[in-house]
Structures are given as structure tokens and as C-alpha cells.
Design goal:
Elements: H1 12-22, H2 27-38, H3 45-52, H4 60-70, H5 74-87, H6 100-106, H7 119-124
Helix pairs in contact: 2-3, 2-4, 4-5
Length: about 130
């Protein structure tokens, strides 16, 4: 068994994963439990995934319901969320991930900020 990291240093994503898995819940089940508790039917497992991967940090509303559903003190989740925000977004790595430069290039914007092809300048410069 993996020993849990001290709560005073853990960022929000790993904390959520640990508590969700301790209950044997999937991300879908966690989202359903949150929706039932909060009386809001708009949370999907995709948002739970984003929180766990730290692509997004839940606001106060969902932090409060996460505390209730996962039975974790709200202060622990709030502190972990603050640490996660201070740390900034995770690096975009792994399969299917593109760097910011690659994303700009794919969107038709060159690193210098100019666009590719088209436009009046493109015809005039030929």
C-alpha cells in the first residue's frame, strides 16, 4: 500500500484521487454523488478528471460539496486548492499533448504571431 502524502503538502488532484479511490468510486460515480448532494445535474466525470489531473481547480461551491461527499475537512481541500493554484498548470506532456508553440502552429499562428496563408497581403506578395 502506498503511504499517503502529508495533507499539508499535497496538491488537490492527488488528494481527490486518493479519497475517491478509497471509496472504490469511478470518476463517473464521484460526479453522480456530487450532483446528488449539490442538487445540480451539470457535473460530468470529465470535470472530475480535469480536477484530478489539475487542468482545472474547482471553485468554492464544488470544494464544499467535495468535502461533504468525500468526507474530507473543507479546510484541507481549500488549502490543497490554493497550493495547486500557486503551482500553476501542469506541463502539457504525454501522448496527445501539444506544446503551446505546436498549438499555435496548428491554429494557423506562427510563433512570431503572424498567421499562415490567405489575407490580402498573401495575394499581393506573390
Amino acid at each position: 500500500m502506498i503511504s499517503p502524502a502529508p495533507p499539508h503538502r499535497t496538491q488537490l488532484g492527488p488528494l481527490l484521487v486518493r479519497h475517491r479511490l478509497a471509496r472504490g468510486w469511478s470518476q463517473r460515480r464521484a460526479a453522480a454523488e456530487l450532483c446528488a448532494a449539490a442538487g445540480v445535474a451539470t457535473l460530468s466525470r470529465h470535470e472530475v478528471s480535469r480536477w484530478e489531473r489539475q487542468r482545472r481547480v474547482p471553485g468554492e461551491f464544488w470544494l464544499g460539496w467535495l468535502a461533504v461527499v468525500l468526507d474530507v475537512p473543507a479546510a484541507v481541500l481549500t488549502e490543497a486548492a490554493a497550493r495547486t493554484r500557486r503551482a500553476g498548470p501542469p506541463a502539457a506532456t504525454g501522448p496527445g499533448r501539444r506544446s503551446a508553440a505546436a498549438a499555435r502552429a496548428g491554429a494557423g499562428v506562427r510563433p512570431g504571431g503572424t498567421t499562415r496563408g490567405g489575407g490580402a497581403g498573401a495575394v499581393a506578395n506573390r
